[in-house]
Please model this.
Amino acid sequence: MRLAFLGTGAAVYPERYNGAVVVDGRLLLDGGAPLLPHMHRCSVDPGAIEAVFLTHFHGDHTLGLPPFVLHRVFVDQRPITFVGPAGIAERMETLWEVSWGQDWALAMKDRFKVTYQEAKPSGSAGGYKYESIKLDHGTSGSSGYRIHVDGKILAYSGDTEATAPLDKLVDGADVAIVEATGPGDVFSHMSWEAAKDLRARHPKTRFMFNHLYTGTVEGAVSDFQVVEV
Ligand SMILES: [Zn+2]
Ligand SMILES: [Zn+2]
Model:
């Protein structure tokens, strides 16, 4: 599989863009980065994205989406599925209305061929099977995903603490994209120390760490990095 990292930073780190990952040019995992220019730089066609998996609704994971959606309204009207936590349809439609005002309902909404799907324990989107696992993150939690890609399992955490559900998410996965926010006490996130321990507990899984708020850590990916797995 081909993983294109459009952004690898936490919300407030000025040296990295907010997070977004494209899998095989067809799946988008979270949408924090400036999606259209970063897809262009990584040779990803924004019209070819078939499903978007959102872990939670924090701004550093969603605020790159409105221009991407406008592309799917005016430039390429292929259907698209958004998978995310409970309330995704209402939360996303509110975001489009805040972004585009009355023009959204008047001229855009009808052209947007979207299906919203609340993340199920096991389901499929864009032709890919997945399982979702509720992770610990602040008051909202986060929906982690195990996505089946060409016979391999890709685990994607979004934001999470290093608690038992995260071990369940990465267990047996071939590849795991997991947050590692920073050193020491990182409230509602995973520390670098905990990330190292997690990797040691799952030696057969290839870990790629993202969502950094400072410096870097072993195993971290960087903005615009494209990895073939
Ligand atoms: Zn975040
Ligand atoms: Zn968050």
